[in-house]
């Protein structure tokens, strides 16, 4: 009799071993390897492969594929900030993985999207594996959405879910909340294991592709920011979005991490209110609210998130250190980037911070990844050290090179327009390609970090 071969699967990255070990060699995680019974993970064991009369390996001409897709390529969700991230609405038959910390508002966002779409006459199903139907209904009631014809189910078995969804006209949108709670009969492992998550996702993806239903899988995120288990799912789905935010702040950011059908650098901004998530069409105003105009150490950065300009306040605090090894603490920006700006300020700007503690904060809890913030960070640092308050009408953007040169950054015009819209009067920028006079705002072009330092000293 053939012996069933046990496999050992890393629950963090999905690497497979033939014996147990304490540490995964692929992702270096400790105690992540769990014994699982294989089987059923391949597509050959799924229902689609056994369907009779299906042509194998058929080819189609490229141009002929548009027929169906042309009519309704996308279904708008009815929430503009969500549609911005998906690239204009859900693509029929596509699968999106939505990750985020517990309690950040994933279920709330998806309930609101479901209700908005159901209100337009589309069939929408919301499958919860975590909450009972009554709980989901209560939430909808609190959000004032209980009158919308969303189909609710509390179900965790994938075969049952696919069966239910296949009855009648296929839904335009199906929400699976969450993928970690789903299980399929084709594998024996416990729900939440990588094998189950992968197989369940595979079945649901197959359902999406055959029925044309847009499916959203909710995925939980671990402490270190990875989508737990479903990391293996990330490669299988069409789009991955993450819902982020600071528990201490009210705003939430929906960010596209991967998108086969749209841009990946767009963000949607929401604010968590008593009545659910409210869209924030003008996030700059939100992030600049409560700004202290008279304090040294603050500079406004004219940033971009995707195609959208976003103005935020950068705060720096520089103080003499009592420690042999001064502290460097950063919230919302890359600590390596801060070290670089500090080194360049010292080498080329004559600013010595080697014996100072340095704290840097992006106000509002936002996380910035653009090197274009270098100039604003440098300005905030110099201002804090010298005690000179930067003019409150100034905005800053520009990348700083290791030579101290201020380098041009993309989309200068959009940044300047946004700054002008919000009432700023002057921009400190790299030497631009834009012609003087055509700019939305008076600009002062800086060539070198020393120009910035001498400008602040002259204030
Ligand atoms: P939820 O959508 O359940 O989070 P997730 O599905 O990501 O785990 O959101 C839960 C949080 O949202 C909870 O802390 C309460 C808050 N919330 C509001 O502030 N207002 C609301 O109207 C709702 C429904 C939730
Ligand atoms: Mg939830």
TrEMBL record:
<dbReference type="GO" id="GO:0000725">
    <property type="term" value="P:recombinational repair"/>
</dbReference>
<keyword id="KW-0346">Stress response</keyword>
<feature type="short sequence motif" description="RadA KNRFG motif">
    <location>
        <begin position="258"/>
        <end position="262"/>
    </location>
</feature>
<keyword id="KW-0479">Metal-binding</keyword>
<dbReference type="Pfam" id="PF13541">
    <property type="entry name" value="ChlI"/>
</dbReference>
<dbReference type="Pfam" id="PF18073">
    <property type="entry name" value="Zn_ribbon_LapB"/>
</dbReference>
<dbReference type="GO" id="GO:0008270">
    <property type="term" value="F:zinc ion binding"/>
</dbReference>
<keyword id="KW-0863">Zinc-finger</keyword>
<comment type="function">
    <text>DNA-dependent ATPase involved in processing of recombination intermediates, plays a role in repairing DNA breaks. Stimulates the branch migration of RecA-mediated strand transfer reactions, allowing the 3' invading strand to extend heteroduplex DNA faster. Binds ssDNA in the presence of ADP but not other nucleotides, has ATPase activity that is stimulated by ssDNA and various branched DNA structures, but inhibited by SSB. Does not have RecA's homology-searching function.</text>
</comment>
<dbReference type="InterPro" id="IPR020588">
    <property type="entry name" value="RecA_ATP-bd"/>
</dbReference>
<keyword id="KW-0238">DNA-binding</keyword>
<keyword id="KW-0067">ATP-binding</keyword>
<feature type="region of interest" description="Disordered">
    <location>
        <begin position="35"/>
        <end position="55"/>
    </location>
</feature>
<dbReference type="GO" id="GO:0005524">
    <property type="term" value="F:ATP binding"/>
</dbReference>
<keyword id="KW-0547">Nucleotide-binding</keyword>
<dbReference type="InterPro" id="IPR027417">
    <property type="entry name" value="P-loop_NTPase"/>
</dbReference>
<keyword id="KW-0234">DNA repair</keyword>
<comment type="similarity">
    <text>Belongs to the RecA family. RadA subfamily.</text>
</comment>
<dbReference type="GO" id="GO:0140664">
    <property type="term" value="F:ATP-dependent DNA damage sensor activity"/>
</dbReference>
<dbReference type="InterPro" id="IPR003593">
    <property type="entry name" value="AAA+_ATPase"/>
</dbReference>
<feature type="binding site">
    <location>
        <begin position="100"/>
        <end position="107"/>
    </location>
    <ligand>
        <name>ATP</name>
    </ligand>
</feature>
<dbReference type="InterPro" id="IPR004504">
    <property type="entry name" value="DNA_repair_RadA"/>
</dbReference>
<dbReference type="InterPro" id="IPR020568">
    <property type="entry name" value="Ribosomal_Su5_D2-typ_SF"/>
</dbReference>
<dbReference type="GO" id="GO:0016787">
    <property type="term" value="F:hydrolase activity"/>
</dbReference>
<dbReference type="GO" id="GO:0003684">
    <property type="term" value="F:damaged DNA binding"/>
</dbReference>
<feature type="domain" description="RecA family profile 1">
    <location>
        <begin position="71"/>
        <end position="221"/>
    </location>
</feature>
<feature type="region of interest" description="Lon-protease-like">
    <location>
        <begin position="357"/>
        <end position="459"/>
    </location>
</feature>
<keyword id="KW-0378">Hydrolase</keyword>
<dbReference type="Pfam" id="PF13481">
    <property type="entry name" value="AAA_25"/>
</dbReference>
<comment type="function">
    <text>Plays a role in repairing double-strand DNA breaks, probably involving stabilizing or processing branched DNA or blocked replication forks.</text>
</comment>
<dbReference type="GO" id="GO:0005829">
    <property type="term" value="C:cytosol"/>
</dbReference>
<dbReference type="InterPro" id="IPR041166">
    <property type="entry name" value="Rubredoxin_2"/>
</dbReference>
<keyword id="KW-0227">DNA damage</keyword>
<protein>
    <recommendedName>
        <fullName>DNA repair protein RadA</fullName>
    </recommendedName>
</protein>
<dbReference type="InterPro" id="IPR014721">
    <property type="entry name" value="Ribsml_uS5_D2-typ_fold_subgr"/>
</dbReference>
<keyword id="KW-0862">Zinc</keyword>
